[in-house]
Automatic annotation (TrEMBL):
Domain of life: Bacteria
Source organism: Erythrobacter sanguineus
InterPro entries hit by this protein: NAD(P)-bd_dom_sf, Sc_DH/Rdtase_CS, SDR_fam
Record keywords, A-Z: Oxidoreductase
Similarity section: Belongs to the short-chain dehydrogenases/reductases (SDR) family.
Keyword Oxidoreductase among record annotations: yes
Protein name in the entry: 3(Or 17)beta-hydroxysteroid dehydrogenase
Pfam name, any one: adh_short_C2
Keyword Ribonucleoprotein assigned: no
Gene Ontology MF term list: oxidoreductase activity
Length: 259
C-alpha cells in the first residue's frame, strides 16, 4: 500500500465517485487532504466523514485556484499532491444542438475539464516549488478512455479528455527541464460506477449494463479501484514515472471491439 504519511493533497471533485474514493484512500494512507467541489453539501459531508478539510470550488474559475492552494498551505504548511479530478460531460455530438446551445456546452465542458486542470497545475506548481526543503510534488490528472476512443455522442468531453493527456505530458516535461522534482501523470479510467453514470441510467434504463459489457471483465469499476492507482502515482513509490499514463479500464482498450 502506498505510504502518503506527511503528504498534503488537494483533490477536486470530491463530492462523489472517484473524487470521494480518492479522499478516503488518501486519508487512510496518511495524507492531510483538502477536498473541493461545487456541491457544498455533499462535499462537506464526505470530507467531514473522511477526516479532510473542504472548500467550495468551481475549478473553471481561474481566480479561485491561488486561494484554494493557499488554503491548503496555510492549513498544512506545504502542498505535495494535486489530483485534478473534477469534470463534467456535455452530452452533445457535433451536430446535435443548434449553434448557441452547442457552443455554450462546448465552452463549459472545456472550461471545467481542460482549463480548470491547467489552472490547477499552474497554481500547484507554484506552491510545490516553494515547499519547505525544496521543490517537490506530484500531480495526477484524471482523463478517460474517451481520450483514446472518443464518443460520437459527446464531442466536448472527448476532446477535453484527449487534451488532458497531452497537457499532462507538457507539464511533466516542463517541470523536468526546469529541474523541478515535480511529476505529472494521467490516470485513464474506464467505465466506473459514478453519480454521472447513475443519473444517466435514469434517462436511459439499461445503460449501466450496456456500459459494463464494454470491459472483458463485464462490470464497472468501483471508484476505490481507480483511487488506488491515483494513490500509487501520488506516492514516492514511482519517482521515475512522469509524463506517463495509467489505464484503469478492465481491459476495455485492450480488446478488438468485435470480440
Amino acid at each position: 500500500m502506498p505510504d502518503l504519511s506527511g503528504k498534503v493533497a488537494i483533490i477536486t471533485g470530491c463530492a462523489s465517485g472517484i473524487g470521494a474514493a480518492t479522499v478516503r484512500r488518501f486519508v487512510a494512507d496518511g495524507a492531510q487532504v483538502l477536498g473541493t467541489d461545487v456541491n457544498e453539501a455533499n462535499g462537506a459531508a464526505l470530507c467531514a466523514e473522511a477526516g479532510a478539510l473542504f472548500a467550495v470550488q468551481d475549478v473553471s474559475d481561474r481566480s479561485l485556484w491561488p486561494q484554494i492552494v493557499a488554503r491548503a498551505v496555510e492549513a498544512f504548511g506545504r502542498l505535495d499532491i494535486l489530483v485534478n479530478n473534477a469534470g463534467m460531460v456535455s452530452g452533445a455530438g457535433i451536430g446535435d444542438l443548434d449553434d448557441k446551445a452547442m457552443f455554450a456546452a462546448w465552452d463549459q465542458v472545456l472550461a471545467v475539464n481542460l482549463t480548470g486542470t491547467m489552472a490547477g497545475c499552474r497554481a500547484a506548481i507554484a506552491a510545490m516549488r516553494a515547499n519547505p526543503g525544496g521543490s517537490a510534488g506530484a500531480i495526477v490528472n484524471i482523463a478517460s478512455t474517451t481520450a483514446m476512443a472518443p464518443l460520437p455522442t459527446d464531442v466536448g468531453y472527448s476532446a477535453s479528455k484527449g487534451a488532458v493527456r497531452v497537457l499532462s505530458k507538457s507539464v511533466a516535461t516542463w517541470c523536468a527541464q526546469h529541474k523541478l522534482d515535480i511529476r505529472c501523470n494521467t490516470v485513464i479510467p474506464g467505465a466506473t460506477q459514478t453519480g454521472i453514470l447513475e443519473a444517466a441510467e435514469q434517462q436511459a434504463p439499461g445503460l449501466i449494463a450496456a456500459v459494463a459489457k464494454t470491459s472483458p471483465l463485464n462490470r464497472l469499476a468501483d471508484p476505490a479501484e481507480t483511487a488506488a492507482a491515483i494513490a500509487f502515482l501520488a506516492s514516492d513509490e514511482c519517482p521515475f514515472m512522469t509524463g506517463a499514463e495509467m489505464v484503469v479500464d478492465g481491459a476495455m482498450m485492450a480488446i478488438h471491439p468485435g470480440f
